[in-house]
C-alpha cells in the first residue's frame, strides 16, 4: 500500500490515479483544508477502484503515529500535503513553517518508529530562484528562497538529506516540479483553486469560461523573445507518472544514494503569450487579455534540463502543450457545468 498525503489535492489526486493504474493499493490522507472529499469518488470513477481515505491533519503527531499503527502494510509514502500559496506564506510565515515543516517532521518520525523507509517528496523548481545559466540541472545551486513557501521546500529537502545521512535505511527522492498544468483527460479531476487563481492556467480557463473578465499578463518587457516570462509547463498526468517511477525505484532498491532529487519538467521553455496562443488554438476560442505591470517577485525565465530524470528514472514528459491546455479547458467546463 502506498500512502499519499495530500492525495485529494491537484497533483496528489492525479498521482493516486496513476498509482492505481500501475497496480498499487493506495491510502489517501488529507485534512481537506484545500480540497474536496468527493475527489475520492471521482478517482474511483476513473480507475474503477477506490482508494482508502482518512481525513487527518499531519500536524497532529499522535494521530500520525496511529495512522501507521492502523495501516501496517504501508510500503512507501508520497508526501504532497502542504500549503502552497506564495503570497499567503509571506503574510503568515509561521503558519507555513508549522504546517509544511511540522507535518514533514511528524511523518518522518512516525516512519522511523514503524520502520518505513521509502519516501517521495514534492519539491519545486522554486528552490533554484532565478538561475544564471539555463536550463537548470540538478547541480545548479539552490538560491535563497523568495518566500516562506519556497523556503519550506528548500528546508524540507535539507531535512531529507540530513535524515538520509543519519539513517542508512531511509531512502527518499525529491521531485522538483516545474509548472504543473492541465487535468486528467476524463475531466473528472483537475486543479481547483479557491478564490481568485494565482496561477496562470486556472486564470486562463476561468477567463475563457467568463468567471474572470480578463487575463492580466504580468509584464512584456522581460529579456525573452516576446517580452513575457518563460516557464517550463509540465502536464500533470506526465508529472504524476514520475511519482510512480520514483516509488518503483525505491521499492526495487535501484536508487543510487539515500537521497536523490530530480527535475521534473518538459525541458522546454514557454512564454506567457505562447500559453495564451496555444490555449486559443487548442480550444478554438479567443481569450480576453491585457498586458499589465510586472508582478513583484516573478522570475524572468526558467526551464529544466531533464536529462537526469530521463536517464535515471526512465521518465520523460510525453503530452504536448496544446493537448494539455485542451485538458485544462475540458476540466474547467466540465466542473462548472
Ligand atoms: N501570470 C500572468 N498572469 C496571471 C498569472 C500568472 O501573466 O494571472 C504569469 C506569471 O507572471 C508567470 C507565469 O504566468 O510568468 C506563471 O505564473 P504562475 O503563478 O502560474 O507560476 P510561477 O510564477 O510560480 O512559476
Question: How does this structure look, described?
Answer:
Helices cover 41% and strands 16% of the residues. Helix 9 crosses helix 11. The radius of gyration is 19 Å and the shape is globular. With 337 residues, it is of the alpha/beta class. The strands form four sheets. Strands 3-2-1-4-5-6-11 form a seven-stranded parallel beta sheet, sandwiched between helices. Strands 7-10 form a two-stranded parallel sheet. The protein has helices at residues 10-21, 38-47, 61-70, 86-91, 93-113, 148-166, 200-209, 236-251, 272-283, 307-313, 321-336, and strands at 2-5, 26-30, 52-55, 76-79, 118-124, 171-177, 179-181, 215-218, 230-231, 233-235, 259-264, 270-271, 289-292. The two termini are 35 Å apart. Uridine-5'-diphosphate (UDP) is lined by residues 179, 198-200, 203, 215-218, 229, 231, 272, 295, 298.
Please state roughly what percent of the residues sit in beta strands, choosing from under 5%, 5-15%, 15-25%, 25-35%, 35-45% or over 45%: 15-25%
Query: Helix/strand-derived class?
Result: alpha/beta
Bound molecules: uridine-5'-diphosphate
Question: How far apart are the first and last residues' alpha carbons, in Å?
Answer: 35 Å
Number of strands: 13
The major pleated sheet works out as: 7 strands, parallel
As a percent range, the share of helical residues equals 40-55%
Elements, N to C (H/E): EHEHEHEHHEHEEHEEEHEEHEHH
Radius of gyration from the alpha-carbon trace, in angstroms? 19 Å
Strand order of the largest sheet: 3-2-1-4-5-6-11
List the total number of helices: 11
Mean pLDDT: 97
Low-confidence spans: none
So what's the overall shape? globular
